[in-house]
């Protein structure tokens, strides 16, 4: 496991031009990691994708481990913000179709707006390093859904609640992966089916408890 110093940025950009350069590097890295896997990705490939010199990349990042850490840190924060805004007590008390619509729309918009990030999740099993990171992010999302289910289904036993949260996140991830890689018209149909599947599943939890 690399040390913190080995995965830390060399310096933070202080000016707009530097901030834009770092943003371009992180966007490029997300795409390269998703397409090639962490092990096969190189800093040269990331720099080319970002249209930056390798020297410019190394001004901010000592290696690809530091770039990956920055990508994960940024997207973890954005995911936490997304789910904190979605899984509010008010929404968790809404009828199932409304809850599913809001969550599915938010998750689908996040994937669409973060090109390449979904690929890290969809294809991470081919890359041990990415698989470990994806598993960690999965666990964080499951824990957040589990917390939401505790509010929505307060009488549900803890172990069953965790199982339902795990199944919900796993289904959502798999179906969003399918939608993300499909043509536009097919994507709409997949999302409609996803909405129906999740609604039925949450209704089953409601009626079984």
Q: What would your notes on this structure say?
A:
- The protein is an all-alpha fold.
- It folds into two domains: 5-65, Homeodomain-like (Arc Repressor Mutant, subunit A, Orthogonal Bundle), CATH 1.10.10.60; 87-208, no CATH class.
- The chain has helices spanning 16-36, 43-50, 54-60, 64-86, 89-92, 96-113, 117-122, 128-152, 158-180, 184-208.
- The mean pLDDT is 88.
Descriptive key words:
209 residues, mainly alpha, Arc Repressor Mutant, subunit A, 2 domains, elongated
Tell me the Rg in angstroms.
19 Å
Biggest sheet statistics = none
In one word, what is the shape? elongated
Total of DSSP H or I helical runs spanning 4+ residues: 10
Q: What percent of residues adopt helix (DSSP H or I)?
A: over 70%
State the end-to-end distance: 43 Å
Strand content: under 5%
Instruction: Count every beta strand, where a strand is a DSSP E run of 2 or more residues.
Output: 0
Mean pLDDT: 88
Into how many domains do the coordinates divide?
2
**What structural class do you assign from the helix and strand content?**
mainly alpha
Unreliable stretches covering 5 or more consecutive residues:
none
List the helices and strands and how they pair.
Layout: H1 16-36, H2 43-50, H3 54-60, H4 64-86, H5 89-92, H6 96-113, H7 117-122, H8 128-152, H9 158-180, H10 184-208
Helix pairs in contact: 1-2, 1-4, 4-6, 4-8, 6-10, 8-9, 9-10
